[in-house]
Amino acid sequence: MATQSNLRPVSEAKFKDSDLSPDERTDDLLSLMTLEEKIAQLMCVWNQKADTLLDKDGKFDEKKANDSYKHGNGLGQVGRPNDSGGGTTAREMAELTNRIQKFFIENSRLGIPVIFHEECLHGLAAKDSTSFSQPIGLAGTFNPDLIEKLYAMTAEETRVRGGHQALTPVLDVARDPRWGRVEETFGEDPYLITQMGLSAVKGFQGDASFNNRKHVLATLKHFAAHGDPESGMNCAPVNVSERVLREVFLPPFKEVLQKAEAISVMASYNEIDGVPSHANKWLLRDVLREEWGFEGFVVSDYYAIWELNDRPDTHGHFVAKDKKQAAELAVKAGVNMEFPEPDCYLFLKELVEEGSVDESLIDGLVRPMLYWKFRLGLFEDPYVDPDEADRICGSKENAELAYEAAKETITLLKNENKTLPINLDEVNKIAVIGPNADRSLLGGYSGVPKKEISVLEGIREKVGDKAEILYSEGCKITVGGSWNEDAVVLPDEEDDLKSIAEAVKVAEEADVIVLAIGGNEQTSRESWDIRHMGDRTDITLFGRQEELIKEMIKTGKPVIAFLFNGRPLATNYLSENASAIFECWYLGQETGRAVADVLVGDYNPGGKLPITIPRSVGHIPAYYNHKPSDRRGFLHDVVTPLYPFGFGLSYTEFKIGNISLKDSTIEAYNSTTVSCEVSNTGDREGSEVVQLYIRDLVSTATRPVKELKGFEKVWLKPGETKTVEFQIKPDSLAFHDINMEYVVEPGEFELMIGTSSQDEDLSKVTLEVV
After folding, report:
1. pLDDT band at residue 736 using 50, 70 and 90 as cut-offs
2. Using CA atoms, how far apart are residues 78 and 96, in angstroms rounded to an integer?
3. Which residues lie below 8 Å from residue 468, measured CB to CB, with a gap of 6+?
4. Which residues pair with 219 in a beta bridge?
5. CATH second-level architecture of 22-392?
6. What is the pTM (predicted TM-score) of this model?
């Protein structure tokens, strides 16, 4: 162990030589560090910035910093500098990160720079950033290339302001719509999540050289199985077998780590088989590091190490008697960094000195933290240019990319009698009605974009003087409705009924009704505190929206509904009675422009559902890739979903045919291809997502009735035909057999190609494996 008495002079250190490799520099730096300096690298400050680094206005306070870090041990990370003083502009954040960085480089003994981390779920969650569709909507684009571009844009907006690590992407497999964090995920299917995750990480990290200073470290979360909590309740236990864990919840992490080389992983709040993830050696060491070869670093979710004991304002696991024991469990499990504040890891020095934790264990956790600071170039180029931050963040070019994402997200669920697109030559008055018509619709973990266009504003701008636009709120979902407002306040019934009556009068004057309804940031969000809930026991429309819908239908006018929500909603009455329905999720800052485009036909919607929409909460679980003995039937009800995974309509028609297997029989572990032709048989240009599903017909352990194993989004002009080809590789057919060995078993496999996961939209061929 290095001590102050036997340390080499820093002037003789080799780690400052940029000609040496990052490994050599890391080894040298680590050999110079005291125990206190090592432990400091495993710590972060977030809200404590206000007490240790900032003045009351959110500006850097040198006196506070000197008082707080007078020992010169440094610090590992600073969390979310954008939120200082209630939110900083791009320029202000760049200036702030420069000041904080300069302080730690010049006032710590070894001059180790800090990493700044940020939330980047669907754009940097900061003032003046570009905000695009929520991940659940991005998955509905089925367009990995677009996702890579969006996250590359976010990486640059983050890095140019001084950020280095994005706490994104979320690779949770969302299997329970009651869970408030569905909007943060790429949906219910492991294969789709994997493809979106690969693209997100490539966007964030580029080639991971970080030479152009436009990229950041990606963080995969939440490891693992966070998306299927018991009762749909955030942080609740996830009761799954190892087989389900390895075949459903782990594959996205494994594939993205190994193919895109994601650098960081965030452990999850939940427990698996009685072991919380932050104390799970098997998960974080045996599987993640030994089996998969992960060489990056694991960060804790916020306050999750404390929760190994008990965090009274939310929950505890009670596998540790106090914070000291919680720290011991976490470091032995392999958690490199404690987020968001110095808390349990404050006991690490004591644990080492008493012999409970070996210092070599600390060395192993510190090493990747230092290594990636070298790889990021922070020792040579730690500062950013505020002028560049101001120029790039929230730019017009970035807004256009967000606009493209919004359009591709929108999913057409119903278009009865070709109600859409509306013809402005035949419509004189359009009634825009609903609680989501004239408000911000960004969802959780959002920044404050330079501009944002509501549904009402977008339609007014698009229609201009071609038709008169009437507006009525109709009713409220909640009072306020912001993600940041802890208390969920229900609207007054009398006020709502009065608003609905006013909406009826407005609607009766119009030729067509555009209804903007769904949820808001309070009705579906991360339930991170007992005062800030977001999980539900119901998935119907919140408040009096159902009454509003019925009154609109009674007018006899065509009703075109746009749903904005973070989770699937059971809208049975709407589905039966509306003329047309769009699922929008959350579209980001360009909401109004995208909605107006699909409404009048300037854009042909092509989104697909990345998650099943159930008919009721009683139909949960409803995910499409269920086992053969599931979905046998209910008393006096059907088992089919309201809308299936992969479903989405268009203003044109597509036909898929000529499905052909290159080889109808192959040997196990060999590959082949299956192809089809997709044609646009309608009169409009549009896109179709051709989907490949596979079923192992007889197996030693039960297999799902179908699993997505390939997709391709194709744009076609009227009358145009293209050939789509999918590779069938061993991984397309393999599973964990009765002996838990990952194998391809001989037998017949059903290959299904079509436009959604429901049987009537699929054509089948059989592949034999010998």
Report:
1. very high
2. 11
3. 428, 429, 430
4. 264
5. Alpha-Beta Barrel (3.20)
6. 0.97
Q: How many CB atoms sit inside 10 A of residue 502's CB? A: 14
Q: How far is CA 293 from CA 250, 289, 683, in A?
A: 14, 5, 52
Going by C-alpha positions, the residue among 571, 567, 459 that lies closest to residue 519 is 567
Q: Which residues contact 719 (CB under 8 A, 6 or more apart)?
A: 679, 680, 681
H or E segment to which residue 765 belongs: strand 762-769
Q: Which two tokens stand for residue 102?
A: 């300069």
Q: Does residue 123 contact residue 154 with C-beta atoms inside 8 Å?
A: yes
Domain with CATH 2.60.40.10 in the chain: 654-769
* CATH number assigned to the domain covering 410-619: 3.40.50.1700
- Residue 2 pLDDT greater than 50, yes or no: no
pLDDT for 4 beyond 90: no
- Tell me, what amino acid is at 709? K
CA 125 to chain centroid:
13
Mean pLDDT of 270-286: 98
Q: Is the pLDDT of residue 5 over 50?
A: no
- Summarised one tens digit per residue, pLDDT across range 185-197 is 999 999 999 999 9
- Residue 409 is which amino acid? T
337: DSSP letter:
B
DSSP letter for 178, please.
T
707 — phi, psi (to 5°)? -140, 135
Which part of the chain has CATH 3.20.20.300? 22-392
SS3 249: helix
**Catalytic hit among 28, 176, 228, 301:** 301
Length of the chain: 770
pLDDT computed for residue 544 by the predictor: 98
Q: What percent of the chain has pLDDT over 90?
A: 97
Nearest alpha carbon to residue 474 among 452, 494, 457, 496: 496
Phi-psi region of 293 (alpha: psi -120 to 50; beta: other; left: phi over 0): left
Instruction: Please write the tens of the pLDDT for every residue from 324-366.
Output: 999 999 999 999 999 999 999 999 999 999 999 999 999 999 9
Range(s) for CATH 3.40.50.1700 in the chain? 410-619
Active site residue 663: no
For a pLDDT cut of 70, what percent of the chain falls above it?
Answer: 99
Which run of H or E residues covers position 768?
strand 762-769
For residue 630, count other CB atoms closer than 10 A to its CB. Answer: 12
- Distance CA(542)–CA(142), nearest Å, equals 29
* DSSP designation for 608: -
Residue among 482, 478, 748, 757 nearest 644 (CA): 757
654-769 to CATH, choices 3.40.50.720, 2.40.10.10, 3.90.980.10, 2.60.40.10: 2.60.40.10
Residue (of 19, 52, 13, 29) closest to 373 by Cα position: 29
E-assigned strand segments in 277-357? 297-299
Largest CA-CA distance found in the chain, in angstroms, rounded: 87
Separation CA 668–CA 767 (nearest Å): 11
Structure tokens at 692: 């490949």
- The pair of structure tokens assigned to 177 is 């719509």
Q: Which of 39, 38, 23, 29 lies closest to 8, judged by CA?
A: 29
